[in-house]
Amino acid sequence: MGMMKRLTAALAVATVLGGGLVAANAQEVVLRSADTHPDGYPTVEAVKFMSDVLKKETDGRISIQVFDSHQLGEEKETIEQTKFGVIDLNRVNFAPMNGIVPATIVPCMPYIFTSKENMRSVMDGPIGEDILKAFEPAGYVGLAVYDSGARSFYNSKHPIKTLEDLKGLKFRVIQSDLFVDMVNALGANATPMAYGEVYSGLQTGLIDGAENNWPSYESSKHFEVAKYYSLDQHSQCPEVLMMSKVSWDKLSPEDQTAVRDAAKQSVTKMRELWDAQEEKSRKIVEAAGVEINEVDPAPFVKAMDPIYEKYADTPELKDLVKRIRDTQK
Fold it and tell me: What domain range includes position 131?
């Protein structure tokens, strides 16, 4: 179903229900939340946890119904629906928001964070709060930042320890100019490709490798056909839980505070689940004989200078880059 058809259908449902923010009765409010990930995924479970917190804090008056497994559409479609208030809450990666909220570009830049701990500290602090505030002029309320893991390179040829090891290799990347430019700048050949085609591409030699986090590498079975995993951690682009400004404005100030507080509490739950999933996935691929190696990131980071010049191209974005890097000194 195309985006406009999905939006029309969702609007029709919302009309029947009285809008995206559904009033179950005069006192109760049920917020509709979208996620492309399946039931049980850390982000899905985190929003369910947020609903439990909200119900407790409001004596059952406010709750959240989570529509997982892209029931309400893919990320691009649900972003549109959220702006119009057809969907109240939405969990999406920062990447599809880059063209809507420019501040989201910086956390998606390659090697911007030095570790998972650095990313979490930055996004939990004033910098993260400023990025969340930048959602509002675009019609959204940024509530919380979730993890999406660290993406690293894996391939079927040999370990990647230096830039020289990347030369000539064909890597699948997501369909993103930033990712294409990043891989090419490292000396490899970027091949944009749908996620579902990667396994066969690796199996047939159409591509030599790809890049992703531990849970995706494991659950996709890519480790079966690409047994070299190199921990360069080039991207830790986070995810955002955001709310429609239309739906937000229907809430009282007290209820807005309750929603924001519950969202913040859900971050801890999401990270607990994510860390556990990463550990489980890594153990599975290690048991399967995958060769894992560490990488000195310094030469890789230096190779990204042209990418920063191209994408962090305004005074505001350059300042945001500087603020993040200052946390690492």
Answer: 3-101+113-147+238-279
